[in-house]
Amino acid sequence: MSRLLIYGANGYTGALIAREAARRGLKPMLAGRNRDAIDALARELNLPRRVFALDPADELRRNLDGIRVVLHCAGPFSRTAAPMLEACLDVNAHYLDITGEIDVFARCHQAHVRARHQGVVVLPGAGFDVVPTDCLAALLKRRLPDATSLVLAFEAGGGPSPGTARTSVEGLAKGGRARIDGELVNVPLAWKTRAFVRDGQSRTAVTIPWGDVYTAYLSTGIPNIETYMVVPPRTIRRLVWLRRLTPLLRLGFVQGALQRRVARATPGPSPQRRRETGCHVWGEARNAAGREAKLALVTPNGYDLTVTAALGIAERLLAQTHAPTGGYFTPSQLMGADYVLSLPGVRLVEA
Fold first, then answer.
1. Do residue 226 and residue 315 come from a single domain?
2. Helix (H, G, I), strand (E, B), or coil: what is residue 274?
3. Full pLDDT tens readout for the chain, 351 residues
4. How far is the first Cα of the chain from the last one, in angstroms, to the nearest whole number?
5. Going by DSSP bridges, is the β-strand pair 29-32/121-123 parallel, antiparallel, or unpaired?
6. What is the C-alpha to C-alpha distance for residues 292 and 66, in angstroms, rounded to an integer?
7. Which of 67, 150, 160, 198 is deepest in the core (most CB within 10 A)?
8. At what angle do helices 252-265 and 162-172 cross, to 10 degrees?
9. Does 61 map to a domain?
10. Beta bridge partners of 127
11. Has residue 351 been placed in a domain?
């Protein structure tokens, strides 16, 4: 019986994870709602499979029978995380997912006391969202223990998957987020802009509601956190213009239409595209006296990093021979600040 279940294994990222898990000999249980797609992948990889939806709850719990670790890859997590998390807690299975959605981090964090009591690890954001940025934040905290502000930024190549594109559309209606004096605060879309330097060239960037405004605060205790993504200036102008459409973007039928449209137009990067593109991550911490610490990471394509990061965490949980300390964890809290540096193709560079 497989002790690892990958839910949403037929999705873009889920399939990447399933293939690598099979290559490592983990023999995961593949799962999802789409019977034809799950059956085809299970035959290709010679792996067991289960076909089920996330409701009703008793059926979901039954399908987690015998599972030790669930790696949840079926978004949008704003709709799918809660039922899967509840089922994992009910059957005492560790819960991992690959979300970057702030509200999902908050929802999972609310389960901390129950998870700790049951010895269940709850760790959302086990992929590119938010392993490299969370570990970089923890490394900066190590260098500057009295930091009061933190800036994190990334430049990602290769383009998004269909699921990421849908989640991005959903996020437009919520505006921006930042951590200010320890509080999670709503801010306008494209609230701030600034530049970061890569290979001697300036890159324009804009604030986005990246998961670290929630998770990096838990990992470091730094009370002021801003997160940025490198984009062309024309994209920043479009985001600023979109502020006036926020009420319209919140309408369900508008969201549905936009999400279907971007999903059709976004197949996800090809294997060659992933090989040819990588990511750059910046981090800056500052204390009250104005002292700074800066670090940067070069990583493989974000989807390839998601595969190795998420499976590394799953393998850690599967390998434990005794009951672990349960509760909610960020990646750096469970795996250590240096975890990201152990992943293939990741290295520290000058910020």
1. no
2. helix
3. 579 999 999 999 999 999 999 999 999 999 999 999 999 999 999 999 999 999 999 999 999 999 999 999 998 899 999 999 999 999 999 999 999 999 999 999 999 999 999 999 999 999 999 999 999 999 999 999 999 999 999 999 877 777 776 677 677 778 899 999 999 999 999 999 999 999 899 999 999 999 999 999 999 999 999 999 999 999 989 888 888 877 776 777 776 776 677 777 777 889 999 999 999 999 999 999 999 999 999 999 999 999 999 999 999 999 976 656 899 999 999 999 999 999 999 999 977
4. 46
5. unpaired
6. 49
7. 150
8. 150
9. yes
10. 130
11. no
Q: Long-range contacts: 256-260, Cβ < 8 Å, 24+? A: 258/169, 259/165, 259/166, 259/169, 259/170
Enter the tokens of residue 96: 């991992």
Q: Which residue has the tokens 């969370």?
A: 134
**Coil, helix or strand for 3?**
coil
Residue 4's Cβ-count burial label (10 Å; 0-12, 13-18, 19+) is: buried
The helix (run of H) or strand (run of E) holding residue 74 is: none
Backbone angles phi, psi at 230, to 5 degrees: -75, 125
Looking at 75-221, list the stretches that DSSP marks H as alpha helix, in order from N- to C-terminal side: 77-91, 102-109, 112-118, 131-143, 162-172, 212-220
Does one domain contain both 170 and 221?
A: yes
For residues 250 and 286, state if they share a domain.
Answer: yes
What is the pTM (predicted TM-score) of this model? 0.94
What is the chain's length?
A: 351
Number of H helices, E strands in the chain: 15, 16
Chain-centroid distance, C-alpha 166: 14
The dihedral through the CA atoms of 289, 295, 301, 305 has a sign that is: negative
- Paired tokens of 294: 């800066």
Longest CA pairwise span in the chain (Å): 60
